[in-house]
Design goal:
Blueprint: E1 6-11, E2 14-19, E3 24-26, E4 31-32, H1 33-42, H2 44-51, E5 54-60, E6 70-72, E7 85-88, E8 93-96, H3 101-109, E9 112-121, E10 124-128, E11 130-136, H4 143-159, E12 165-168, E13 174-179, H5 186-202, E14 208-209, H6 214-217, E15 221-224, E16 233-235, E17 251-252, H7 254-259, H8 271-278, H9 319-323, E18 344-351, E19 355-363, E20 366-372, E21 383-388, E22 401-403, E23 411-427, E24 430-436, E25 441-450, E26 453-458, E27 475-478, E28 488-492, E29 497-504, E30 507-512, H10 528-531, E31 536-545, H11 554-562, H12 566-575, E32 578-588, E33 591-592, H13 598-608, E34 615-617, E35 620-621, H14 624-633, E36 638-643, E37 653-661, E38 665-674, E39 687-693, E40 696-703, H15 709-719, E41 724-725, E42 740-752, E43 755-756, E44 762-763, E45 766-770
Parallel strand pairs: 14-15, 27-37, 32-34
Antiparallel strand pairs: 1-2, 3-4, 5-6, 5-9, 7-8, 9-10, 9-16, 11-13, 11-15, 12-13, 12-17, 18-19, 18-23, 19-20, 20-21, 21-26, 22-23, 23-24, 24-25, 25-26, 28-35, 28-36, 29-30, 29-31, 31-32, 32-33, 36-37, 38-39, 38-42, 39-40, 41-42, 42-45, 43-44
Helix pairs in contact: 1-3
Length: about 775
């Protein structure tokens, strides 16, 4: 019998049949099956990074979370042929493996709300690649009491040489996962976990236990290590749970956990937004894999002769590399014997005769190396030439320095990414591989074309495409004076148009804070290949026009932004040129930088912007008070103070950045105007103002000063273009409401003021300027 309410959807290269999309799966939250499918499709780039290659156990809820639910391990007979599976266990079950977004859509259509993963990954299913400690509190346990236990266990785990990652379970507990090398069986890994957990529990008998039976726990938290068994699983990172609220098993930073009071805040409705702002905090998980502490070898003495091994090559086997270098003149490492794990990689940013990137993968005891002129491809569909060079010694994994002039490859060489990789599929003329590091994580394919020429392309879709998606800028808080602490750096607050600058294969796009594409208005900023030492990038900056003294003139840059007609724009570009002061770098040639500390981002930025172009790096100083006094002296707008270690937080307002203005100003929305009297009778009397607070407009009073005749006429012409409404949507007690013409709140302006009144009105407001850029 044909299924009812079905339709077909194209997901990548697959056609997937969907059914009963309007079925309610979470009744209290009114979440439909269609929304569950959309969630898994949207988060596919990130969740696949963690579960691809893993056997999955499903928990299905065909009639919603209050109906019958059941585990499913076996792949259904009617599953599509393209759905990958693996046969595992004594019972020979065909476990599903999700390999692409279509896999997740197909599973979500089965109402597989929960995805649980086995601990081994293709091709080593019998060897777990992480050790898990499941902190399972009893019913009614206060979550905040679980947090210190997690931190105490973290400290002990780190003392044993592991890097612990934490996530919520989507319920009341926490999972602490420690990446390990996949070369020990489950029993051996369990014994290593027990070696940590047993003394931890013995030292805290009143708070934690290893007793599985609930009646034996007596109100204590179970430190469950018994999941480290063949066939056992844990809920996958970012998986939904079939519970009221549609919670998600959410990866966290340890700082996130320190502040967390209720894990239920992470739901199908909140996770995607956090992910888009913070990125995947478990990215690079595999790069932290280490040997079990119970099986670690002592490091051999530096001069000790190692026996023959496939894991290292002798200097003779790196003859081509050695012949090209004079090791008395270059700081590069000479060929030597090194023991490694066999799956390390490094990407270098190399300022040789031409800037390029060097991709180096450990194989057979050396680093197989490719020069990639345009850097790692940013997303699928982009192919990069990769020229194979001579094999390099393993010491090159940590080489970071300058090769002297006259030596082969002379120039600066910086480590751009360092971690571990895994070949995921062998092909006749190449292979697929996954890079895992805190700097770069993704799956790629490299394919040999001829001789030393290869093609490199990215296979997986990044969760956030920094070149193609709209990225909101980070916003600042206000302060009255510069912080006195040495934790900040200070730079000018440029009086211009805030812009996000996208560089893609040498082409530049400029967008304002309000997402207005102003690229055509500034032709002098469009030659990205001359302005940047990069192929792709996302930068944050300010477009300004300067007077003869080098001071920004806001009205001039607004006139440039408002200009139309190609001939007129070209003429203005010569008579009234703009410059773009860049103060941050979010993305550079295949690598996301938002989680790097500000000082490190500044280094990448300075290296990426060429001198003597309309693009300039916004310089910073250490003495904030001196810069503030200088800004006052020269009648500039103000300065910025930024924490040196701060991350870039897209779309967030943060006190990590502080604006210290010479005068107190605010950005307001014009919501109407009052009738004019006397000389203003044909224009307007005052502008009614509101300020955006969250999703609301809060009334802030009127502004009636700061205008001359020409400015009033200019403003009135703009007001007449805005739609009139009977009632404003702003909230508050309005002044002269019956004398006001209310407008749709689309016009923005900047005002200065003395301070706030007790009822949060601007005291002594003065109009400064319209802000069409906002």
């Amino acid at each position: 019998m044909a299924k009812k309410n079905t339709q077909w959807a194209q997901v990548g290269k697959r056609k997937v049949e969907l059914s009963n999309l309007e079925k309610v799966l979470f009744p209290e939250d009114e979440i439909l099956k269609a929304e569950v499918i959309q969630y898994y499709l949207t988060i596919a780039p990130t969740i696949l990074h963690h579960i691809k290659g893993r056997a999955l156990t499903l928990i299905r809820f065909p009639d919603g979370i209050h109906g019958e639910s059941f585990y499913q391990k076996n792949r259904p007979e009617w599953a599509p042929d393209w759905l990958e599976f693996v046969t595992l266990g004594k019972e020979k079950k065909d476990y599903i493996i999700a390999t692409e977004p279509a896999s997740l859509v197909w599973l979500a259509n089965l109402a597989s709300l929960e995805l649980h993963q086995l601990h081994g990954r293709k091709p080593t299913f019998d060897f777990p690649d992480y050790m898990v400690f499941d902190l399972d509190p009893p019913e009614g346990y206060v979550f905040r009491n679980l947090v210190p236990i997690a931190f105490e266990l973290k400290e002990l785990i780190e003392a044993h040489g592991y890097t612990p990652f934490v996530k919520t379970t989507g319920g009341k507990g926490l999972h602490i996962c420690c990446p390990i090398e996949a070369k020990w069986d489950f029993h051996t890994v369990f014994e290593a976990a027990q070696d940590i957990a047993k003394p931890f529990v013995e030292d805290r008998p009143d708070r934690v236990t290893l007793q599985i039976k609930k009646e034996a726990r007596k109100g204590r938290v179970l430190v469950d290590i018994f999941r480290i068994r063949s066939g056992q699983s844990i809920v996958s990172p970012y998986s939904l749970r079939g519970r009221v609220g549609a919670p998600v098993s959410m990866p966290l930073t340890w700082d996130d956990l320190r502040e967390l009071t209720d894990p239920r805040i992470y739901t199908i409705k909140t996770v995607l937004n956090k992910l888009s702002q913070d990125g995947d905090v478990w990215e690079g998980f595999d790069a932290y894999a280490v040997e079990l502490h119970t099986h670690r070898k002592k490091t051999p003495a530096k001069n000790k002769k190692l026996p023959p091994s496939a894991k290292h090559k002798s200097p003779e086997q790196l003859e081509v590399y050695a012949k090209k270098r004079d090791f008395e003149k270059t700081p590069e490492p000479a060929a030597a014997k090194v023991e490694t794990t066999g799956n390390s990689f490094v990407v270098h940013r190399h300022h040789a005769s031409r800037l390029h990137y060097d991709l180096r993968l450990e194989q057979d005891g050396v680093l197989k190396s490719w020069a990639v002129p345009k850097g790692l491809p940013p997303y699928p569909g982009v192919k990069r030439l990769a020229v194979q060079t001579e094999d390099h010694p393993m010491e090159y994994l940590t080489f970071d320095g300058k090769i002297p002039k006259g030596q082969y490859g002379a120039g600066e060489m910086w480590i751009y990414a360092l971690g571990k990789y895994q070949i995921t599929k062998e092909k006749k003329d190449g292979f697929y591989f996954r890079l895992s590091s805190k700097e770069v994580s993704g799956e790629y394919r490299i394919h040999k074309m001829k001789e030393k020429e290869w093609l490199l392309e990215r296979v997986d879709e990044p969760q956030v495409n920094y070149l193609r998606q709209t990225i909101e800028p980070m916003l600042s808080e206000s302060a009255d004076k510069p912080p006195a602490r040495d934790t900040h750096l200070f730079e000018m607050k440029w009086d211009g148009i805030r812009a996000m600058i996208v560089l893609e294969d040498g082409q530049v796009t400029l967008r304002t804070r309000n997402h207005i594409d102003v690229t055509p208005q500034f032709p002098e900023l469009l030659d990205g290949s001359k302005a940047f030492r990069a192929t792709n990038g996302l930068f944050d900056g300010e477009v300004v026009c300067l007077d003869g003294d080098g001071k920004p003139v806001f009205k001039r840059v607004i006139n440039r932004m408002s200009s139309t007609g190609e001939t007129n724009i070209q003429k203005l570009a010569k008579s009234n040129p703009v410059y773009c002061y860049i103060f941050d770098c979010l993305y550079l040639d295949g690598r996301v930088l938002i989680n790097e500390p500000l000082l490190k981002r500044k280094e990448w930025l300075k290296d990426a912007v060429r001198p003597d172009t309309p693009y300039r790096v916004s310089e910073y100083v250490e003495d904030g008070q001196a810069l503030f006094e200088a800004a006052k002296l020269h009648s500039l707008e103000g300065i910025m103070a930024k924490e040196k270690t701060s991350k870039y937080l897209p779309a967030r307002r943060s006190d990590c950045w502080l604006k210290i203005k010479i005068r107190q100003t605010a950005e307001v929305v014009i919501i109407g105007y009052t009738q004019g009297k006397g000389e203003r009778q044909t224009l307007f009397g005052a502008l009614q103002m509101a300020e955006r607070v969250g999703n609301e407009l809060q009334y802030r009073g009127k502004v009636g000063t700061g205008f001359d005749d020409a400015l009033m006429k200019e403003i009135f012409q703009s007001l007449k273009k805005v739609e009139v409404v009977k009632k404003t949507t702003a909230i508050g007690e309005f002044v002269d409401a019956n004398k006001t013409t209310w407008l749709v709140p689309v016009m923005m302006a900047e005002i200065s003021y003395a301070k706030f009144t007790p009822d949060r009105m601007f005291r002594e407001p003065v109009f400064v300027r319209l802000r069409p850029d906002l």
